[in-house]
Each structure stands twice: as C-alpha cells, then as structure tokens.
Write a structure and sequence with these properties.
Shape: globular
Helix content: 40-55%
Strand order of the largest sheet: 4-3-6-1-2-5
C-alpha cells in the first residue's frame, strides 16, 4: 500500500479499465461519470489495510460495506471479477514489492474480506430490502443553500437517532451520497434530512434546488454508530458543525422521548449567524427540557473554531461526547475532547473514512 499510494490515480484507472474490458456486463452497476467513484476503491482498500490487524473493526467495516453494496445490485458472483482485476492492477504497479508471496497474501486477504461482505449481504437480504423508495412530502429552503427535506418511505424504515443513510436521486442514477437523519424515529414513519448544496455537488444541488414534493428518491440501509447509549447516565457533550447539527438534534429528541434526565450540552457551530438555520428548533427544545443547554459558536463573531469553544466550559471528564460535521472538524474535535479529559472510547462520531468517501 505504501508503494502504490503515490500513484493511486494510475492504479485505480487501470483497475477500472481492466474490469470494464474483461467484464463489460459490470459497467451498468456504476454511475455514468466515474470521477468520484474512481477514488472510492483505493480509500476502501486503505481503510481495510489500516485495520488488517484489528479484526473486530475490519469485520464491522466490511459488513457495512457488504450490506451497503446491495443497493448497487452487487451479487456474490461479481466479487471474483473485482478481485482478479484488483490483483492485476496491484501487480502491474507495485513492482518493487510484488512477488508470489505478496500475491498469495492478497488473494487470501481479498477472499476473506469479500466473503465477509457476501455473508453480511446474504443475512441482510433475509430481513430488509436492498433499498427503499421514498417520496418527498415537504421541501423547505432554510438558507440559499440549505434545505430541510421530509420523506415518506414506501415501507417501514428502521434506523436509530444519530445514524445516516445513502440517498440516490432520479437525476443522477447510481450516484449515492450519505445524509444523516435530522430527527429521531417518528410514529408517522416520516424521515427528515438537512442538505447543504456544495460546489459541483450533483446530488446535494439536486436535493436543494431541484427536488419538489412528489419526487421519489431511493434510500439505502441506515448505518453509523454515533448513537445514544441509553444504558449510561453520563452527561452528553455534542458538537455539531453546519448541517452536522442534524444527527445531534435527532439524538436530543431521542433522549427527550425516553424521558432522560442526563445533562446534555450542545455546541452548534456555524460560519455566520445566518448559517444557524436550525437554532430556533434547538432553543425550543432547550426551553422544554431543563437538562439541555444549547450554545451557538459563530466563527465570524467569536473568531473561534467549534472544537476550541468547549475549553471555556466544563469540566467534561464525566461526559460522553459525539461529533458531527466536516471531516476536518471531527479530527480537530477529537483532539480537543481528548485534551479536555474525555477518553477516546467515550467519543463517538461518524467514520471519517465514510465521510470522505461520501463526497457531496
């Protein structure tokens, strides 16, 4: 992996060229434009390689991948074709380290990893569809580039507050992006999402500027482990940056519905006051629940980054923590929370690898 890292673009391009020449029937599983998809393979590989000696983490990661790949139409017979072309690409470019022993190790590793994914998909197939259709029933533009969408799935959709899903629009077939649920599970079955249109973001711009009530999108299964552990009585410290406030709000609602009394401190970060598009909802929740404290952290006004804001409060040593927002904010936030005395095992966040892969 160290050898191919600097030439990742060449390796990835060659892999897909091999795959589509040798197995042209697989081309229809991929989006028409491959620019984002091209990077995903190597990022998944790097993540797997990083955790190769940590089976529990690796297996969970691969199981999630396997379940998630069902929505693309991936079948067990597709995996050998991918493995064959992957090893073909690695052997062409990892010339300094490739030999029979390396190839045998990659064959063993890929066979094991693909079997974990195949088994997870097979188990999931017994209890859940590969995807859900969901109708847009409400579309509210909160700012020029942030919309709140409410969807009605065509059948019950299981998820936990704090999780996210992958979403495909009718305008960009086979292009999926991750979005967090912005509310706890509701009795009416409706789902809410906060979407920010980002430059050159095909899916996000479609959802913010094009989607209207009556449009139908597709949803993959829920994922993510940034959920509330209701067996714990510790305080909960939540950092939400931008639309990262969505899963934080869902977790607060979840605690409120369960009658929790544990103290919850929410720090809501934004660039400007205008970007605090959901502050009124959170302040209403604060008025209704004495255990909840909400603080807005506005970069332009305070000249303070969200993770740094927690230093003036606390102590936090008896708190659990969760972070949601851009990958850079999550990395800085983990550092700040560790410095504030919260051990790593009590800090939850969406996988940075998954967020990076999610793109726009």
């Amino acid at each position: 992996m160290a050898e191919i890292g600097p030439i990742a673009d060449k390796v990835t391009s060659y892999f897909y060229a091999l795959l589509f020449v040798r197995h042209p029937e697989l081309r229809s599983l991929f989006p028409a434009a491959m620019d984002t998809q091209r990077d995903r393979l190597l990022k998944a590989l790097l993540t797997a390689a990083e955790h190769i000696d940590n089976p529990s983490v690796l297996v969970e990661y691969l199981q999630n991948l396997g379940r998630g790949h069902r929505k693309y139409g991936t079948r067990p017979e597709h995996y050998p074709a991918v493995g064959e072309c992957l090893i073909g690409a690695l052997s062409k470019y990892a010339t300094g380290s490739w030999d029979r022993e390396t190839e045998a190790a990659w064959v063993r590793a890929y066979t094991t990893m693909s079997q974990v994914m195949i088994d997870a998909a097979a188990t999931d197939e017994l209890r859940a569809p590969a995807w859900w259709h969901a109708e847009v029933v409400a579309h509210e533009l909160r700012t020029a580039d942030v919309a709140v969408l409410t969807l009605r799935p065509d059948q019950p959709y299981p998820f936990l507050a704090g999780q996210y899903t992958s979403l495909e629009t009718p305008w960009w077939p086979r292009v999926w992006r991750h979005y967090s649920f912005a509310s706890a599970p509701r009795s009416d079955g409706l789902l809410t999402f906060h979407v920010k249109a980002v430059p050159a973001g095909w899916v996000s711009n479609s959802l913010v500027h094009r989607a209207r009530p009556g449009d139908v999108v597709r949803l993959g299964p829920a994922g993510g482990s940034m959920t509330v552990d209701h067996t714990r009585g510790n305080g909960l410290l939540c950092l939400g940056g931008g639309t990262g406030i969505a899963p934080v709000k869902a977790m607060v609602e979840d605690l409120a519905e369960r009658g929790s009394r544990r103290p919850v401190e929410v720090f809501y970060g934004a660039r400007t006051d205008h970007d605090l598009y959901d502050i009124d909802t959170l302040l209403r929740l604060q008025q209704s629940h004495s255990w909840l404290t909400v603080r807005a952290v506005v970069d332009q006004r305070a000249h303070l980054q969200l993770p740094d804001a927690i230093r003036g409060y606390g102590p936090w040593t008896e708190y659990d923590a969760c972070l949601s927002g851009p990958p850079g904010m999550i990395r800085n936030g983990i550092t700040a929370l560790r410095a504030a005395g919260i051990p790593a095992h009590r800090i939850r966040h969406d996988s940075v690898e998954e967020l990076v892969v999610a793109g726009d």
